[in-house]
Amino acid sequence: MGSCESLFWSLILTLSTAIITYNIIVSANASLNQELPGTSPSSTSIDPLIRMPVDTRFRNGGERNKKRLFHTAVTASDSVYNTWQCRIMYYWFKKFKDMEGSEMGGFTRVLHSGKPDAYMDEIPTFVADPLPAGSDQGYIVLNRPWAFVQWLQKADIKEDYILMSEPDHVIVKPIPNLSRDGLAAAFPFFYIEPKKYETVLRKFFPEDKGPITNIDPIGNSPVIIEKASLKKIAPTWMNVSLAMKKDTEADKAFGWVLEMYAYAVASALHDVGNILYKDFMIQPPWDKEVSKKFIIHYTYGCDYDMNGHLTYGKIGEWRFDKRSYENKPPPRNLTLPPPGVPESVVTLVKMVNEATANIPNWGVSA
Q: Which among 41, 57, 258, 299 could bridge 254 via Cys, Cβ 3.0 to 4.6 Å?
């Protein structure tokens, strides 16, 4: 990178930091009704709910076998909890990256701790600065959009598309580029309900931007999106996240999914529509079959009695819950679930076991 370009990005980052500091100081009621590229009062977003074809060979004007590679980006802190999840996630990324049907390109762990850690050589990593002290108000997820802003500005990303993923994602098969025709591909979450919270959301998505249904029921992950679109969305996502957290009504309404709502709003403000792709991932124990899905998201605890009956909300005789390993990684060779437990949970535990058996120095303190 030339000295002029380095100076340019340094100035950009300095300006971005100043903007963040300003957002922290100013009132949460400051207007977000700004002109954004590609928006108009009459514009509407496309919101199809469809099954995407796995075969991507005939897109882009009918060109055969032309891959549209995407770069996988995972934001994480340097906590033990996030780190062991990232190591497992990256193990399975490498397993499937070059298999038939994959359009997976490079991989980056976007580490928002502000300093390198002991796993820089194991996992390709970009070190981003965290938000100024105290600005996340204990909600560390607010560092995610700011980390993406920095990564998109400074990193040399070869691919034209990006998959935003998370540490607690396990890839179960090669992932093709599910986006198409300028639309991102995103998983729809049942608990993201823009219509239910229209009054609150109108503070950040004014009526002149279109109907509230333009806001898709998504978070930022998993999403496959054009890099150029994400570069437009990311700063808005950051600013809306900070503004929502400072707004008492929004903070109370959205809670732990606030940053997800902020991304959905930012995407709509920039007229980036999303294909709502239900087969993108499963979330055990509620989703029981892997089938044609691409990702297992192990956000919920899996508790069962020894007869294979779910005891959700009550610690089971057999359990796998990532929260059991906040201060130390799970041991190698976890006990498999008892007979009767759904395929999704069995597959998850087997995949965790394979990864931990093959990742060097598993369980050794860094």
A: 258
- Give the residue among 40, 18, 22, 23 at the shortest CA–CA distance from 262: 23
According to the model, what pLDDT value does residue 365 have?
Answer: 62
Other CB atoms within 10 Å distance of the CB of residue 59: 16
Which domains are assigned to the chain?
38-280 (3.90.550.10), 284-358 (no CATH)
Q: Examine the pLDDT at 362 and tell me if it is beyond 70.
A: yes
Confidence of residue 140 (pLDDT cuts 50, 70, 90): confident
Give the global pTM: 0.84
| DSSP classification of residue 225 | E
Nearest to 105 by CA among 55, 162, 58, 60: 162
Q: Are 285 and 342 in contact (CB under 8 A)?
A: yes
**Long-range contacts for 196-199 (Cβ within 8 Å, ≥24 apart)?**
197/253, 197/254, 197/261
The DSSP bridge partners found for residue 185 are 224, 275
